[in-house]
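Hi! If you just cloned this repository, the fastest way to understand the data is to look at a raw example. We've pasted two of them here, unedited. The first protein comes first, obviously.
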Amino acid sequence: MRSLKLITNGSASGVLSRFASHYNFVVAGGGAGGCAAASNLLKHGTVAVIDPADTHYYQPMWTLVGAGIKTTEQSSKSQSLCVPGQAKWYRTRVEGFKPEKNSVSLFGPFGGEKITYDYLVVALGLDVRFDKVKGLKETLGKNGVCSNYGPGNADYTWKVLSAIKGGDLLFTFPNAPIKCAGAPQKIMYLADAHLRKAGVRDNCSLTYHTALPAIFGVPKYAAALSKLAAEKDCGVETTSHLVEVDGEGREAVFEDMGTGKQTTQKFDMLHVGPPCAPSPVYATSPLADSAGWVDVNKHTLQHNTYKNVFGIGDCNSCPTGKTAAKVAAESGVLYGNVRRLMKGKELKKSYDGYTSCPLTVGNDKLILAEFGYDGAILETLPFNQAKPRWLTYFLKKEVMPPLYWHGLIRGTWRGPGLVRKIAHLGTA
């Protein structure tokens, strides 16, 4: 008989037979969105969570790890502490979706195990694709080539940065989707602050290469960041994306997005913001849109074809920044709309595209970018958040991590919408 380990309350409790098991809710993915959805939906029926990870990471902390401010260990907890205890945890990967049959197949030693559902939540994130830049995968983690994306990678960023005494430091933003679009330049400002503190900044050149036509996608924050980069003497090359890395030769090749011309630059440190892409397991399924993302209504988060399917987080097609803040705001909308669908009611909860990029800019200060669809400014605090402030840095460093562990993944922190209304006296 084929079998697959079934985890309940974080411990092995038995086996799943090859015959299909049914749940009211199946949650594919155990990251921020998956844990939040599962925690909420447990109030209304049986829940299965499918995720193979042993460790759950608070990924926004990795920028601070790369700057020597936090450690990788501080960014992680056992996944058994994060998946809600009352859910059935299938510690394996999703092999495929058959939404027309309300079925999910699971990867295993023999493959083909299936579970069925009344409602499906897809929360499978995205894939970080270092392999999409020629030579990058082979040299990442050595030769001064680093990235704060991926478990443990930020440790090498700090190792390289802390040893720099002079030279050329390059930071890149890809010509592709990316999670946390602010992260590739945050580390540049933190590097600048470290080098100044170490007394070697005058020996160093810092340059940010971005495939975008501006330093940031929202004009209000782009203006503030452009001014900041100039004040810190950090160069900014727009419409310039990384196409090749020669680690041993310490050379990076960039292509101009407009002309196609390629230039080669020497480096002593190269921090790469990697291209990201939809995961094949959903990108090649009936759930995907033409770009490979889970095809949802951008306001209700309901699948555009399969009405008992919802998508949350990095994997869905909502045209906004892929961040943990996005997940928080989406979680309340998803929960409310699933409940209404269960009652046969119209889906009234509406996601406004809220996302946030807490942009660390050095000297214990931060620009807190908050915006929604089409770049609409959705700032929570009653002052201009494009100005670097100590308070917003404190929120990033000390408040947001416990809010994630004890609020977001528990389904109780659903974004700052209510706080925003109170702070703006109901006008926001």
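Ok, and the second one:
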Amino acid sequence: MVVSCCQSYQKVNGIKSWMYACSLLFGLIIGGSYAVQNLTICVLAPKLSPYNDTDCTFFSLPIIKPAVTIGIEKVQSLKILPHVDIQVVYKNSQCSDIDATIAAFEMKDRKVHMFFGPMNDMAVNSVAQYASRWNIPLITPGAMSAFYFESKFDKHTLTRIGLSYDEVVRVVIDILHHYDWYKVKVIFEGRKRTPVFPEYYDIAGESFRTVMMERQYEAEINSYVSQFQSLEDLLTKKVGFTYSVVVLCASADSVREIMIKAHELNFDNGEYVFLNIDLFSSKEDSEKPWYRENDTTERNQKAKKAYEALMTVTLRKPTSPEYRNFSEEVKKRAGNDSFAYGEDEVNSFVGAFHDAVILYALALNETLANNRSITNGTEITHRMWNRTFEGELFQAIT
């Protein structure tokens, strides 16, 4: 029966129409107008730090896996990709550009369709260049500096959905302009262990250099490495009487030590202003940033007094009931691995991985609806840019 139908179609419309009719009828015979397509997603994130377990904990694999899983379940429940079978492979990037690139090559050989991550800028820069050559989309909540990513010439399948440190610097400059503060010293901490990634503070310093040059704002920028420089020298020689505003890009513990020393040197006498850029501290730590349970009462009181001269720039954390529910579900699924969360909602990196799944699924759905291939990374990427959608963390992606 099928053969005779196809043969009659051939006589009327030629060989191409005959082939189309046969394929259409075959699709109907196997139970639907669309064959199921296999989709392989690779998540690149650190499982264990190459230094120790205090590095890169904000986006380690045990923490982000539940968020990705919840995102995929939502895609399936909403039938965003009804004819796509999704497989997720988690690869340990070790918070390293070398390990992330090796993992990407391994997954390329396994015909991966999509990369989520890595996070740290050097790793993203490396993997994104190869992914663009392979025409594979890459979404990351990382890649915080415009230094590597301003030009999309060699990274045209990269989509950044996270915070740009350059935008943070622009906010700081607006604050400085608002109060007419111009004698400014920027101090950023050198490379060190951090829950974000080891070069995080280096990126902060580079962003200050780049944006202040762009905005023609003059400021002195110095790095600080606690092992090689005393806090007294830092304040008396680098700040001294020349600068009245000090911008700090450093860990919470380093900022606290600097402020205690500032109090001891009478730098909190009203003649100096300190700005602290603290984007990722937990709610609990933000409420009493000067307090340390294992420190003396005297030093805690010094820190408390010094923090009266400190203004902190931080991220606004999601407070919606939906995000709280999402956080609780992620922590419940993480089980014993949820130690990094404490009592807070999950951090922005975790929420961003969930939203990355939704964003990619929407773009892929549109691509397939327009009869484009699941492997057309450029088409899918362009459909992720300049759009608005409702996620757990983001309302707009640009």
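That's it. A detail worth noticing about the second one: The CA atoms of residues 62 and 255 lie 29 Å apart.
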